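so my prof wants the structure for this chain in the tokens format not the other one, which i didnt know existed until like an hour ago. anyway here's the sequence
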Amino acid sequence: MSQDTLLVLMTLFVAITAISFVGQAIALFRLAKTTNEMKQRVEAFLPKAEKLITTAEATIAESRAQILQITTNANEVLAMTKTQLTRVDALVADASARAKTQMDRAEMVLEDTLTRVHSTVNSVHGTILRPLREITGVAAGVKAAVSHLLKGAPASVAQATTDEEMFI
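here's what i got, hopefully its the right format
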């Protein structure tokens, strides 16, 4: 290769390099401009974000206090509920025991009353009805005797047989 060709070739490469440096400079300028625009936007947004973060932190702090209060109240309610349920359970157990005792007593009273009624009925049968039957039997015998005496002698044997059959 000749020196002239080499010189032209080197000039060409230097020119291409210069053009690429100019392109890079333009790109860097645009990048700097875009970066400045982004910086301005971020700077404009930053106070709003800081206010939002401050508000969020305050809300979180308030929420923590409220959640702590709610948790404490819920624990107290649960403890009171447990105590009340224990009392109600004891009351129901006591009422059940008393009801069972009263039912047993009522059953014993009813059984005793039925036994007394049965014994009274037996006494009435033995002391009143038996003598009444005996008196009724004697009265029937006296009535039959009086009736027989008033009728006189039976007129026929058939009549006497009929009377005897009726008596038996």
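also thought this was worth mentioning. The mean pLDDT is 87.
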